[in-house]
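Good day; I would like, with your permission, to put a structural problem before you. The record follows directly beneath this note:
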Amino acid sequence: KKLLLGIPFFGKSFDCSGLYKKFEKSNYHAYSEIMNSLNSGWSYVWDDCSEVPYIQNQDKTEIISFDDERSIALKCQYIKEKQVAGVIIWELSEDYYEDASVLLEVIGKEFKKKAIQRR
């Protein structure tokens, strides 16, 4: 009842240009940047095991792992099933894309029927 589940409105990119490479760093990408990449030739892939998507560039040397409407809805359902206290979002403004906050809207719809009770 005191636990919050963190939901990122950003993604992390990883170099996939070869096997057994030393991990150097991952880069931070706002959801809006990820959507722009998807619209410029990157491919969308859903990972059934982790229940989150990633996108990969055309030559499959880079991926960006992130949350989208589907994965966030699944996380919200998990929160309700496990009776977790709620969500924490980082970073709220990263969601804004094409005049909408689609990720925040998913969270709002999922929790609309369940109001937070204060003591």
Notes: The domain at 4-111 is CATH 3.10.50.10 (Chitinase A; domain 3). The two ends are 13 Å apart (CA to CA).
